[in-house]
Automatic annotation (TrEMBL):
Signal peptide: none annotated. Coiled coil: none annotated. Residues 188-288 form the DUF6596 domain. Residues 20-83 form the RNA polymerase sigma-70 region domain. Belongs to the sigma-70 factor family. ECF subfamily. Residues 122-170 form the RNA polymerase sigma factor 70 region 4 type domain. This is RNA polymerase subunit sigma-24. It comes from the Bacteria. InterPro entries: DUF6596, RNA_pol_sigma70_r2, RNA_pol_sigma70_r4_t2, RNA_pol_sigma_r2, RNA_pol_sigma_r3/r4-like, WH-like_DNA-bd_sf. One of its GO terms (molecular function) is sigma factor activity.
Length: 421
């Protein structure tokens, strides 16, 4: 056992460790028992046991194994007590046997990670796209319901309903927890890519908490995307997603200062960017954009590549970035993409042009609680010398920001414009 101390610090360490292990734990339990509700319940009980014992006894050398062993024991105890539960699982087991054996994680033809297996299962076409992504993020990535809600720009209550609806659909349709056949994989791929990107986004820009980034979560999404790339090398959007992740994650060390504070792209020390990761990403961009019409992830990766290749913000190819955002909007309208395009237009044509576009998005409900929208307006208003309006926009963004580094940055920007009001 390793001693992680006592008190609040130990509790924080245990909670962080739990968040990293939870996806593996739940996937293993679902694989073993074939029931998501049971897996969630005993996983939560195992975590409660860990929170009770680890701060006192120390974190085990193999915390994931400890959690899995504890959860399995609790599941067995529950099945012994609850005959109805046991009968239900027996039915599920019979159905799983009829569907065919589930290959082990490293077997030929199977997916080499239990979480990816479950990602594909939860991407079943019987589930609505947003419901299945929400379910995977909540259950397998260990995100809280409010964090998932932020990722989708919807209220927490709405997201909770989606998660419940998805689990109910799995029960009612008796969707088996198994690896889909090779002919089913392409149909489910977009849902899996969406989930992986949402996990990465939460790692790159945490929706709440004391830290700007959750690097472990971002790196886990990249690891799973690499596995998917090896599994499906001909799928260009897999290459595009991995390229996008690498291009963005390459800036991780420069995005925060020594105190953990937010450092904007314009102020980052680009010598700290991971050039090896950028080069790998560039090769993947070429693969993603070759051989047919571009996909959304490939286009986003190309935008990220233009940022990474520029010496500074002033020499960034903003006209090309705006053109790529036009392509992205043609592939699928999105208020967030429109927001990013407006910022790029401001860099190309000036703050007044960008502000007109942002004001045109004011009625978009998905941006109402999206703090980057208010922060972008505040920045452009400040650049135009409209300081009272900028202060109001900074206050709005401050009330919506989820992490302390973002709030601290907005407080500094607000303090800079308030004397001029």
């Amino acid at each position: 056992m390793r001693d992680d101390g006592r008190g609040a610090g130990a509790d924080a360490a245990v909670e962080a460790l739990f968040r990293e292990e939870y996806g593996r734990l739940l996937a293993s339990l679902v694989r073993r028992f074939g029931d998501l509700d049971l897996a969630e319940e005993v996983a939560s009980e195992a975590v409660e046991a860990a929170l009770a014992h680890w701060p006192v006894d120390g974190v085990p050398d193999r915390p994931g194994a400890w959690l899995l062993t504890t959860a399995r024991r609790k599941a067995v105890d529950r099945l012994r007590r609850d005959k109805a539960y046991a009968a239900r699982l027996a039915v599920l087991q019979i159905e799983a046997e009829r569907a065919g054996p589930v290959p082990p994680p490293e077997a030929d033809g199977g997916l080499p990670d239990e979480r990816l297996q479950l990602f594909f299962t939860c991407a079943h076409p019987a589930l609505a796209a947003d419901d299945r992504a929400a379910l995977v993020l909540r259950c397998l990535a260990g995100l809280t319901t409010p964090e998932v809600a932020r990722a989708f720009l919807v209220p927490s209550a709405t997201m909770a309903q989606r998660i419940v609806r998805a689990k109910k659909k799995i029960r009612q349709a008796r969707i088996p927890f198994r690896v889909p056949g090779a002919d089913e994989l392409p149909e489910r791929l977009p849902g899996v890519l969406q989930v992986l990107y949402s996990i990465f986004t939460e790692g790159y820009a945490a929706s709440s908490g004391a830290d700007l980034q959750r690097l472990g979560l971002a790196e886990e999404a990249i690891r799973l995307a690499r596995i998917l790339r090896r599994l499906m090398p001909a799928e260009r959007e897999v290459a595009g997603l991995l390229a996008l992740m690498l291009m963005v994650h390459a800036r991780r060390e420069a995005r925060t200062g020594p105190d953990g504070g937010l450092v904007l792209l314009a102020d980052q020390d680009r010598s700290r960017w991971d050039r090896t990761m950028i080069e790998e990403g560039r090769e993947l961009v070429l693969a993603a954009l070759s051989g047919g019409p571009p996909g959304a992830y490939g286009v986003q990766a190309a935008i990220a590549a233009l940022h990474d290749e520029a010496a500074d913000v002033a020499t960034t190819d903003w006209p090309q970035i705006v053109a790529l955002y036009d392509v992205l909007l043609a592939l699928g309208p999105s208020p967030v993409v429109a927001l990013n395009r407006a910022v790029a237009v401001a860099m190309r044509d000036g703050p007044e042009a960008g502000l007109r576009l942002l004001d045109g998005l004011a009625g978009e409900p998905r941006l109402r609680d999206h703090h980057p929208y208010a922060a972008a307006r505040a920045d452009l208003l400040q650049r135009l010398g409209r300081f009272p309006e900028a202060a109001d926009a900074y206050r709005e963004a401050l009330g919506l920001a989820g992490t302390e580094p973002e709030r601290a940055h907005l407080r500094r920007r607000l303090a800079a414009v308030e004397p001029a009001c």
